Amino acid sequence: MSIIFTSLSYLDEEGTTLGTAAQRFSTRINLDYHLSRKLLFTVNFSFISNAIDGNVTLGGNNVRSMAYIKAPNMSIWERDQYGNLTGEYFNPINSYQGSGSSYFNPVAVATLGRNDRVENSLDNTFRLRYTINSWLIFNETVSIQYTGAKSKNFLPYNALGADWLDWQINKAEESNNINSSIQTETQLLFNSPFKSSKHVISGAATWFTNQSQYEWMNIQSNRTPSTDIQDPAINAQINWIGTGMGEGRDIAATLNMNYKFLDRYGITTNVRADANAAFGANNRWGIFSGVSGFWRFSSEPWLETLEWLGESKLKASWGLSGQQPGDPYARFATYVSTTNYIDNTAVIPSNIQLNNLKWSNTTSTNYGIELNLFDDRVFLQADIYKKLTTDMLFNNYNIPGSAGFTSLRFLNGGELENRGWELMANWRVFRTKDFSLFLDFNTSRNVNTFNMVPENFNKERNTSLTNGAFPQLVKEGEPIGSFYGMRYLGVWPSDEDVVARDANGNPLLDGEGEPIPLTFQGSYIFKGGDARYEDINHDGVIDLNDVVYIGDSNPDFIGGFGASLKYRDFDFSFGFHYRLGFDIVNRVAINTEGMLNRNNQSKAVLSRWRVQGQDDPGMLPRAYLNHPANNLGSDRYVEKGDFMRLNNVKFGYQLPQKTCSRLGLRSLNLALSARKLFTITQYSGQDPEVGQNAADPFWIGEDNANTPPPKTFTVSLLVGF
After folding, report:
1. In sequence order, which ranges of 389-546 are alpha helices (DSSP H)?
2. Does residue 1 have a pLDDT over 70?
3. Measured distance CA(183)–CA(51) in Å, rounded
4. pLDDT of 291-334, one tens digit each?
């Protein structure tokens, strides 16, 4: 007997940013073949093809961020001396803003530039299941994954304002990547060989292997002879060419045991041993373990009288897990050739050999409760947890240059703690034969802190106070993602108001009894119309000593809520997602409200300071070219990112079974769905849902004008035969 399932899907969408699009085709086939009563053979096959059209990024600016700062009097199209359009994009080599390659025409780059990627992935999984007897089962699984990707970039001369000898003119690049892996899993499942109504024992012993390989090639050239010839391998100047390959291996063995008594008490234990090629012989093996247990108190005889209490239990768990470096070759010493070793050709070391690199360990503790109440109409689940990560893996860790190297590929050190809780609730409001309504809600809170940093760790970055930059600090006991900067107090109304004051608000006086003016780092004297910052230590100088904590990128609460409604053959559901209690650095506002360069400015600058004595509510500092301190990193640009987003809406219809039978069908379902229809927020930028990166101790949440999520509408038809 065999069972076959197959599916096909195709997606074709136009991006929300000019010049972007995506196409995706996927297919899946599952085959279950019963060779005998004891032997089952399963094949899972899937193929995915992705084609993504993107935009070229230049000088750290994507086309959206450039569209914000490009001067508004810089035309998209070129005109001749009579004012007539020439049909060419306007791309001066130099403008009053700067070079044409730094301040490029975003429409030209989006339309003419090319940053395309095609990726094909194949995944085959073969499983053999043999039932030896009623209490012993053998499973063997072999998975083969293969991914091939090709990316092509091209920047034509007519999309960029640069001299024809500039290295970016007709710049072409091609990359090819092949990744493959073979994974095996040999498993022996066992149950208790004896029958007992009180005791239940089960477990599994499993052996894992994984071997992965990769190959890559990249070639870059410039000044190709024509915009129609976009292959970097043709007769053009080669900027760079390289190729490489590598492989990684890891093996693991696990043993887990489960025991239940009276179906009320249970315990699970597991032990896992891992070996990974990323480590040397000193620390190749890592031993990890865990234990969990539950008490189904609702089954206790002394609680049987509580009719409103359904199946409920308390649970607890403890576990130790490990993490290995992402690069299996990072531990090796490497050497490069150079022509600049005391003006001689030589082979010199470029990376230190890391013989003592070891696993990063995370210890997790969790306590929880599950409650089913009122005839299973209400379900509640709550968990509290603590995760402690030690021997963290720091990537490209900076070290003093006196060591002969500038960084270590990886370094173990530090201690990161995560504490939090999660709460989930489901409510079956009512359910009848034709009508049902369910509501759900979940929320969580997580707080991370660095308990310890590695020895000689540099806790500061960007310590020079410059416009648009936030000093980056790591403080033990403070969460990753904390902001540090100046406290912005508004604008100085006039020159006479700029006076340094002590902690009591009294003016600081010089030796002659005259008020001391407030300065920026002791050199620039603030004037009327300048940004006003709090002098924290009241020394009359705005400098690094006045940098304080001004915000946190970590949400206080993350969660969602929704509902599902069903009436006969129709169903409707929706879900909201929210983040509350976190801050964002609005990098777009920094670039468009500073008024200290020739960049385009937002309409907010219409409310700027203009004359002595002006003290309007909410006014911005004066326009001042190259002002040294009017745009310092401060809470002026830190905004609340709280938002609630309608994540998904779905309306479905299931054709009645009698109608399906007449049509010779097993089932037919039609669904209309939409994603990310609207967002409720007070944040002034494009999208408050910025990415999080707790692995980087200096990470802060910034909005850099990335493409916001699109509204997506889908029509789906599922037919069963």
Report:
1. none
2. no
3. 27
4. 999 999 998 888 888 888 889 999 999 999 999 998 888 889 88
Separation CA 249–CA 143 (nearest Å):
15
d(CA 309, CA 311): 7
Here the CATH number for the domain that contains residue 215 is 2.40.170.20
Residue 563 lies in a domain: yes
Please state, in angstroms and rounded to a whole number, the distance separating the CA atoms of residues 385 and 420: 6
> Do 414 and 440 contact (CB within 8 A), yes or no?
no
Please check whether residue 386 is in contact with residue 415, taking contact to mean a CB–CB distance below 8 angstroms: no
Confirm whether 578 is domain-assigned. yes
Distance CA 128, CA 327 (A): 33
Residue 434 placed within a domain: yes
| Measured distance CA(564)–CA(137) in Å, rounded | 40
Residue 479 lies in a domain: no
User: By CB neighbour count within 10 A (0-12 exposed, 13-18 middle, 19+ buried), where does 117 fall?
Assistant: middle
* 50-82 residues labelled b (16+ CB within 10 A) or e (exposed): bebebbbebeebbbbbbbbbbeeebeeebeeee
Per-residue CA distances from 469 to 472, 484, 504, 587 (Å): 9, 10, 30, 10
Residue positions counted in the chain: 721
Could you report the per-residue pLDDT of 104-137, keeping only the tens digit for each? 999 999 999 999 999 999 999 999 999 999 889 9
Q: Is 73 helix (H, G, I), strand (E, B) or coil?
A: coil
Q: Is the dihedral of CA 675, 681, 684, 690 positive or negative?
A: negative
The candidate with the shortest Cα–Cα distance to 313, out of 386, 381, 375, is 381
Give the rounded distance of the alpha carbon of 170 from its chain centre: 33
Q: Are 633 and 487 in contact (CB under 8 A)?
A: no
End-to-end CA distance of the chain: 17
Domains in the chain, number: 1
- Domain housing 88: 2-462+554-588+639-720
Checking 55-58 for CB contacts under 8 A at 24+ apart, the result is 55/17, 55/18, 55/19, 55/20, 55/109, 55/110, 55/113, 55/115, 56/109, 56/113, 56/114, 56/115, 56/153, 56/155, 57/115, 58/101, 58/102, 58/104, 58/109, 58/155, 58/160, 58/168
Q: Could you tell me if 289 and 273 are in contact, meaning their C-beta atoms sit under 8 angstroms apart?
A: no
In the structure encoding, which two tokens stand for residue 210, read together?
A: 């994984």
User: Do residues 178 and 151 lie in contact, with contact meaning Cβ atoms separated by under 8 Å?
Assistant: no
